[in-house]
Known about the structure:
Blueprint: H1 5-8, E1 9-13, H2 19-32, H3 41-48, E2 56-62, E3 65-77, E4 82-92, H4 101-115, E5 120-123, H5 130-138
Parallel strand pairs: 4-5
Antiparallel strand pairs: 1-2, 2-3, 3-4
Amino acid sequence: MIETVEQTITIRPARRSDCRAITRMIEELAKHHGDVPLVSEDALRANVFSSEPWLNILVAERGERLVGYAGLVRGFKLHFGQRTLDLHHLYIADNMRGKGVGRQLIDASKSIAKALECTELTVSTQSHNLVAQSAYAACGFVKIQNPSGARFVMEL
């Protein structure tokens, strides 16, 4: 029997001891997008492992090494009274891309969304990232148009 990558990957919730590796992956993803990474291990711990976590992180582990993560942020459509879950980050190590790791993280994220009684799991990507768009479509996501109108932000 030939062992597939899917059989060697474990998807699990992040642990405090994973923060260094996750921070490095977040930094790689930020640099890939041309952003300056500002996240620290302490900030990650404070926002994932507090009594009221701001986000959840799933990791993909192969042996003793983390090879990817999914950052999940809860949301709510107040005017519809519906819970949502946003797959805010999906990162797969270069040498593991195209081997089903992303699909496993997405499937686990979908399971969490269902357990939280969310009406939708969302994800975004850059408009020119056709590889990611194709992968998301293959996993069951449907592309939607951005809502019309202006969006505002106030820095505090």
